[in-house]
Amino acid sequence: MKTITLIGAGGKMGCRLTDNFVRTDYQVHYLEVSSRGLENLQKRGVTVGQQAEAVPQSDVVILAVPDIAIGSVAREVVPMMKPGALLLTLDPAAPLDDQLPRRDDIGCVIAHPCHPSVFNWEPTETAFRDFYGGISAKQAIVVALMWGAEHYYDLGVEVSTAMYAPVSRAHRVTLEQMAMLEPALVETLAQTCMEVVKEGHDRLIAAGVPKDAVREFVLGHLRIQIAVLFGEVNGTFSDAAYKISKRAKPVLFRDGWQKIFDLADIREQVRDITQK
User: Fold this and answer.
1) Which pLDDT tens digit goes with each residue over 159-173?
2) pTM above 0.70, yes or no
3) Where does a domain end: 118, 138, 173?
4) Which residues constitute the domain of residue 201?
5) Which residues does 141 contact at the CB level (< 8 Å), separation at least 6?
């Protein structure tokens, strides 16, 4: 069985991975330096390892640290890795921004969760409310081989399936394609649009519309709108809805907004993420 070092094991994402790894047969070294992270691991009964001992003997080294710290951590850790080991990161931003020192005698894979779909069916309330995934709700993952032989990709999928479990499917993408998904699609575009919708929600409440009515109205309509647009139902919007949408789009969006999916613009997006 492979030996794994999880760096940042007590952080936000690190805790989710730790909770899954403790249920596996992998030999895992859990590394953490922050006081809050150490407290999180102590609550879980997890013993913290030493980087100088753990990294050189590990088959897989996982960087579960904030994007702005990945470069400095990687420059310290990668030279310590044994030949043939796999470097696994959780987000495409730092790799695309050339924050990872390259070694030709190791492999590098990036794996990111899709999170459970809004149309994910789960048999229990607990699983249904596992919105992030990694606990009890099924989710897909996207996996990219940044460099190295094909067996590194296979190992990356194996480990990622365990740490993001339960996983329904692994989609193979390139590093650039993963960056088009995040940040461009789901953060730059989708999250921003949802933040504006929430601002509209709050504005109606401030104007005196009953809070519960606003919440149920907008969330119900969002669900059916997503279902129609993504083909979950065989339906359409009303003629009036299509007319008002056509009117609203040039008011809400500038011409050329699609440039956020151009690689040059994506590189600027990830640079904002990785730089302090």
Assistant:
1) 999 999 999 999 999
2) yes
3) 173
4) 180-274
5) 111, 112, 113, 114, 160, 161, 164, 167, 169, 170, 171
